[in-house]
Amino acid sequence: MLVLSRKLHEKIVLPTLKVAVQVVGIKGGVVRLGVQAPREVTVLREEIPDRAAEWAERQPPSAVAAVDEPRSAKFWQPLCARLKSAGVRLGLLRLQLDTGLTEEARQTLTGIQDDFQLLCYGIEGEMDGNATPAPTRIGKLQKALLVEDNRNERELLAGFLRQSGLEVDTAGDGSDALAYLGSHAQPDVILLDMGLPHVDGPTMVRQLRSNPVYAGLKIFGVSGHLPEEFGLEWGPRGIDRWFQKPLDPAALVHGLAEELCSSRN
User: Fold this and answer.
1) Same domain, 213 and 246
2) Which structural domain, as residue segments, surrounds residue 114?
3) What is the pLDDT of residues 153-196, one digit of tens each?
4) DSSP, res 239
5) How far apart are CA 88 and CA 112, in angstroms?
6) Left (φ > 0), alpha (ψ -120 to 50) or beta: where does 28 sit?
7) Are residues 123 and 183 in the same domain?
8) Number of domains in the chain
């Protein structure tokens, strides 16, 4: 075992693992550590694995069997990934609060709210017998393009929308979305995150609105920021509707139903 001494705010770095451990607080006999690590690196307190194993042993056979079914595994995998993401964000939030990064902490908290909103919504749908979690269904089958760079959020939200009656294709960034539009039939609506790599949401909106080929295409903005922060117009020359993160999937489906139904009349 390597033993190191560190003062407050000093770090220990494991460059091969891309992990950094910082002393963020010392009070009485307790040292508080902040751990920065990639999402694929699991970080646990020592007692957690034992408690997790104890919990698993208490599960009834029926619960274990349900998790082993292919459909359940497919459903729960993204939910577990989102729960892990929420845990990482909570650790980051604590570190930001300890170091006085108020604005960054506020943004992290918004991400945590989004994580748990989708987690609760998905679990409720599964507990209701895999019924459609959203109370509104979109009557006639229409197609949506969901553009979201967070993979877990993208897959969960796409699943909810498909259960509501939409056909959904996805893209991970603005560049992929523009390439998709150039090689596929035009969707009825685009659900567009604003903070995208390569080509961001506002840039994509302006490109589409300047091209007459996409006249009449519905574009819904989906973002943790307010629409006025991006300087976009409303209506046919900009955004048709805006949905604030943390996202309420039921409100999104209801808004989609309203917009798509009105565009057919």
Assistant:
1) yes
2) 66-131
3) 788 788 878 877 889 999 999 999 999 999 999 999 999 999 88
4) B
5) 9
6) left
7) no
8) 3
How far is the C-alpha of 124 from the C-alpha of 81, rounded, in Å? 17
Please indicate, yes or no, whether residues 150 and 209 belong to a single structural domain of this protein.
Answer: yes
CA distance 105 to 94: 8
Q: Could you tell me where the beta strands, DSSP code E, fall in the chain?
A: 11-14, 19-27, 30-36, 143-147, 167-171, 189-193, 218-223, 241-244
Same domain, 117 and 197: no
Same domain, 195 and 241: yes
Q: Please provide residue 55's backbone torsions phi and psi, each rounded to the nearest 5 degrees.
A: -65, -40
Q: Is residue 48 assigned to a domain? A: no
pTM: 0.53
Taking 70 as the threshold, does the pLDDT of residue 151 lie above it? yes
23-67: per-residue pLDDT in tens?
887 877 778 787 887 766 766 665 444 544 443 444 444 443 444
What would the two tokens of residue 224 be?
A: 């943790």
- Residue 161: closest CA among 149, 144, 175, 147: 144
Whether residues 218 and 122 share a domain: the answer is no
The predicted pLDDT at position 128 comes to 52
Q: How many CB atoms lie within 10 A of CB 35?
A: 16
Is the Cβ–Cβ distance between 165 and 127 less than 8 Å?
no
On whether both 162 and 186 belong to a single domain, the answer is yes
